[in-house]
Amino acid sequence: MAKPLERSYSRYTVEAVSLLGQLIRLARIEKGMTAQGLADRAGISRGLLQRIEKGDPRCELGAALELATILGIPLFASDAEGLQQQGRQVSEKLALLPRAVHPKAPVVNDDF
In sequence order, what DSSP letters do the residues of the chain get, joined into one string? Predict the structure, then answer.
């Protein structure tokens, strides 16, 4: 069986995921929560929590965002209403854009 290809990530992505993991770990410790307690509350395994805290970019995004929400780490708007407003603004912008992006047709140079 062939080994799956290793996914590469940009430096920015690696740094952002690492920062999010550190913020989650810091907030968990400041709130006096054990890793197992937070993992149970989020409905994930302790191992997944540890991987997120260590900045593993292959972890599930939803799990990382749920941890941030539980711990009160603001990533977008500070409340649900603000998040909904941001979502509506993005939806309005998307409605004005084409549904798909097509590659531009190559320009044919037929001057011989």
Answer: -PPPPPPP--HHHHHHHHHHHHHHHHHHHHTT--HHHHHHHHTS-HHHHHHHHTT-TTS-HHHHHHHHHHHT--SS-SSHHHHHHHHHHHHHHHHHS-SS--PPPPPP----
